Amino acid sequence: MTDKKKHFTFPSAYTVILLVLLAVMILTYFMPAGKYASLQYNTTQENFTVVAPNGHESTAPGTQATLKKYHVNTDLAKFKDGSVYKPVAIPNTYQKLNQHKPNLFGAIKQFLNAPIQGLSETIDIITFVLILGGIVGVVNKTGAFAAGMAALSKRLKGKEAWLIVIVTSLIALGGTTFGLAEETIAFYPILVPIFMAAGYDALVAIAAIYLGSSIGTMASTVNPFSVVIASNTAGISFTDGMGLRLVMLILGTLICIFYTIRYAEKVKQDPSQSLIYNQKAELEKHFLGNSDVNEVPRFDFRKKLMLIIFAAGFVIMVFGVKEWGWLFNEISSLFLAITFILAFISGLSEKDFVSEFVAGASDLLGVALVIALARGVTIIMEQAQISDTLLYWLSSGVSHMSGVIFSTVMFFVFILLGFFIPSSSGLAVLSMPVMAPLADVVGVNRDVIISAYNWGQGIMSFITPTGLVLASLAMVHVTFDKWLKFVWPLMAIIGLLAIILLGVSVYL
Predict the structure, then answer these.
(1) Does 77 lie in the same domain as 162?
(2) Do 237 and 372 lie in a common domain?
């Protein structure tokens, strides 16, 4: 009897963040405490409150001249309209501070308290995440998502290339608006047989679905789990930089569609060109052996109405944030109202509705915990007052960079971070308090950092094993190495596009 070798398994996001938390705790004993002076605009008095590194407060006129005096390269209008509402670090004001380091018992207490405090400080975000998860669970239970996709697929029979176009586009739309990702797992059993019956291979199905979700979340426009949280943490409105993110969404989606169609048509004309040709018989037996691709859920009026109401919530959310200054409490209230509306039109019994809502919320409980844990890391850095020290060290390296080089460096930084922390929301609340002020130092808008974060961690989601890719591949019985061979040229193209657009954003 031989012992089985144990293979290394990459840890989950929770373990990664806890390790980061531990590393930061250790780091606080080696990094000196320090602080930048900061300024914050007071809308009632129409002036700035300037806080020195030692905590002393003073006021300054609320004018562009004041910002110029302190070398803060931000338009005064962004302070006045509330786009920038958090304290902004004043460049070249960093000072070291004397601070007592806790003993071993104090360090353990601080380590255990940080996630709890993080949960308390992010409860508004977590509430919204859970409500949205509940709604998605209910809509999924009614079959509205699946019915819409399947009915559309059936109507396009004979025009299979359009199937790729529409499936990828619709899923990308879901990704960019509400972070449609885990929910796409439900689409594979329905769509894979349809794609294969059309003469394509299973890789085309996963490309249409997974690439749609990946490019959508990468090019997030109003996705509350990435761009909204990141912008909120960075102290700007998520509508800042929206135009360029829309360009990335459109161009990125088109590139993914054409890339997939090119491969799909090649496979349709010559099946031996398939990257998974050696699995052809096996996959056809599995997906087509006992399947009737004409049996698709009916996309009735009730399902259409549910999707319209669900989509309308995001339109109202954007308007509320931009015009009425809504924060997460108001957004959560909006989607709670949508929950009540769906309860009446879903056709589910009270017991089933509540059960599915709770199940849907529980599916995103992991996201909520990641947000809390990641916030705990920030809390440790704030208590030790090393965030500004880290910012000072990083700014020393990039302060003389041009904006274009800086944006490119940030893109690759977030690619690396995206591998270790695949949760978009967790990465946002962990990184933005440190990264966003670097834009002020270099002299570019903070939305450049948001775009670099979105696109860097987003492109990593195409292949990161800690994300959804392995689960998605398992659904269609495709191995990871085949997926890598298929997707890496596409990643290079999308990455080049991201770098170009980041360079353009510097001048906007």
Answers:
(1) no
(2) yes
Take residue 235 and report the two structure tokens written for it.
């102290």
Helices (H), 207-241: 212-218, 229-234
- Distance of alpha carbon 147 from the chain centroid: 26
Vertex 292: Cα angle to 288 and 294 (nearest 5): 130
| 342, 135 contact by CB (below 8 A) | yes
If asked whether residues 27 and 79 sit together in one domain, one would say: no
- CB of 447 closer than 8 Å to CB of 236: yes
Domain identity same for 24 and 84? no
Co-location of 82 and 62 in the same domain = yes
Distance, in Å, from the CA atom of 254 to the CA atom of 250, rounded to the nearest integer, reads 6
Are 181 and 424 a contacting pair, CB within 8 Å? no
Whether 137 is in a domain gets the answer no
Same domain for 50 and 168, yes or no, is: no
Which H or E run includes 317?
helix 301-324
Instruction: Give just the sign of the alpha carbon dihedral 332, 338, 344, 347.
Output: negative
Query: Which residues form the domain of 197?
Result: 12-33+156-300+368-508
d(CA 130, CA 59): 41
| Residues 226 and 236 reside in one and the same domain | yes
Residue with tokens 């007071």: 42
CB-CB contact of 255 with 493 (8 Å): yes
Q: Is residue 343 part of a domain?
A: no
List all residues 6 or more positions away from 398 whose beta carbon is below 8 Å from its beta carbon: 406, 409, 438, 441, 442
* Predicted TM-score of the model (pTM): 0.64
Predicted confidence pLDDT, tens digits, the chain (508 residues): 445 555 555 566 577 778 878 888 888 888 888 887 888 888 888 889 998 888 888 899 988 888 888 877 666 876 777 656 667 777 778 888 887 778 888 888 888 898 899 888 888 888 888 888 888 788 878 877 667 666 666 676 667 788 899 889 988 998 898 787 766 765 776 678 778 877 889 899 999 999 999 999 999 998 877 888 788 778 788 888 999 999 999 999 999 999 999 999 999 899 899 998 888 888 877 676 544 545 555 778 888 898 888 878 877 876 786 677 677 788 889 989 999 999 898 888 889 899 989 988 887 787 778 778 878 877 887 788 876 776 677 656 666 778 899 999 999 988 877 776 667 777 776 677 677 878 887 888 889 999 999 999 999 889 876 567 777 787 787 888 889 899 999 999 999 999 999 999 998 7
95 backbone dihedrals φ, ψ, rounded to 5°: -135, 140
Total number of domains in the chain: 2
Given 77, 93, 109, the domain boundary residue is 93
